[in-house]
Amino acid sequence: MANEGKSMTVLTASSFQLTVNTAEVIAEFSKLGGIKSTMGEVPYTFSAGKGGYVRTQQFGSPNPPEVILEKGFEHKGKEGMLWAWHLAARRGIVAARAQVTLNLRGPVEGTQDHEVVAAFTLTNAWPKAVNVSDAQAGANEMVKFSVTLVCDEIVFGPAPVLPNLLDWQNIKELPL
Fold first, then answer.
1. Which of 59, 72, 79, 163 is least surrounded by CB atoms within 10 angstroms?
2. pLDDT (tens digit, 9 = 90+) per residue, 120-143?
3. Read out DSSP for 2-42?
4. How far apart are CA 107 and CA 114, in angstroms?
5. What is the mean pLDDT of residues 111-122?
């Protein structure tokens, strides 16, 4: 195995910052509800001769990646910017598609400081949904705000350089 004898560091994050079009941080979240990137599969059956059949699964259509973020609803927070961005997407304004960076910020060992410990880049992202949790007047519970982003592509860290996939016979392993 590649990791034998090496210690592994588990990622911890204290906050999740959203930056749009490399501008200022437009929101900071306390919970990452998940990052999901999936694609469908297509069953394929063909004749193997002499009455035999081979069944395989082929690559299907990709589903748009989704990122869900949550935080407490703030009276004077930046939720208004996220609502306006969502409204622009609902109205079909093309400029609502944006280059987004999701920074996971974590503690710096031995200090009180925090730094970016991981980042995701979302291409042509827009808010598919914004939600405010149920709330009851007089209740002593936090009102939660969440946003679900969808995008054309999501990349963890810098974009990986993949080998020439057309020359698959000479690929020993992917550089992941």
1. 59
2. 999 999 999 999 888 888 878 888
3. TTTT---PPP--SEEEEEETTSSEEEEESEEEEEE--EEEE
4. 4
5. 82
The DSSP letter of residue 170 is: G
Q: Which two tokens stand for residue 46?
A: 């063909």
Dihedral angle sign, alpha carbons of residues 23, 27, 29, 35: negative
Q: How far apart, in whole angstroms, are the C-alpha atoms of residue 28 and residue 101?
A: 12
Token reading at 53: 């059949």
pLDDT digits (tens, 9 = 90+) for 37-73: 999 999 998 888 887 888 899 999 999 999 999 998 8
Sequence-distant (6+) residues with CB within 8 A of 30 are 15, 16, 70, 71, 72
Whole-model pTM: value is: 0.75
Q: How far apart are CA 156 and CA 174, in angstroms?
A: 16
What are the sequence ranges of the domains in the chain? Answer: 15-160
Owner of token pair 């004077």: 76
